[in-house]
Design goal:
3-stranded antiparallel sheet; mainly alpha; about 140 residues
Length: about 140
């Protein structure tokens, strides 16, 4: 689902693929909206405090863990996971000075050091029990 890019993979791209990349504002439009929806929509009456800080990603990881623990089917929570991943991506954009990139319907965050990060896919990995949006953000912002 990640079109060959994984979290922390090199952001180096050939000139052929650069033309397909979109930067803000068009590439950011959807993930920024998904992130805002995740912030505004409480899950089962409990809304974690999401303030676009790196610390808030601890809460997001716990929310995803809770969703996984209750055994929700992926199809039922796919949109919510996308929103939480987009939220984490927006945290990285704000904390590291990154920018959203998009191609073929997939969205990534490119940090100033040129690396591409896939927070939406990382949210899916969290749901599968093998990921952490908090750690993704820590790694993405470490090279600042």
């Amino acid at each position: 689902m990640t079109s060959g890019l994984t979290s922390g993979s090199s952001g180096e791209s050939s000139s052929g693929s650069t033309g397909r990349q979109q930067t803000r504002p068009s590439a950011a439009a959807k993930p920024v909206r998904w992130a805002a929806d995740a912030v505004a929509t409480p899950r089962e009456g409990a809304r974690p405090h999401l303030d676009y800080s790196a610390q808030s990603l601890w809460r997001v990881d716990r929310v995803i863990e809770g969703i996984r623990r209750v055994g929700a089917p992926y199809a039922a929570v796919e949109t919510e996971l996308r929103g939480l991943g987009a939220y984490a991506g927006e945290v990285i954009v704000r904390q590291a000075g990154g920018e959203w990139w998009a191609t073929g319907g997939d969205h990534w965050v490119r940090t100033p050091d040129g690396r591409l990060w896939d927070p939406i896919d990382e949210a899916r990995r969290c749901f599968a029990g093998d990921g952490s949006l908090r750690l993704l953000c820590r790694d993405a912002t470490a090279a600042r």
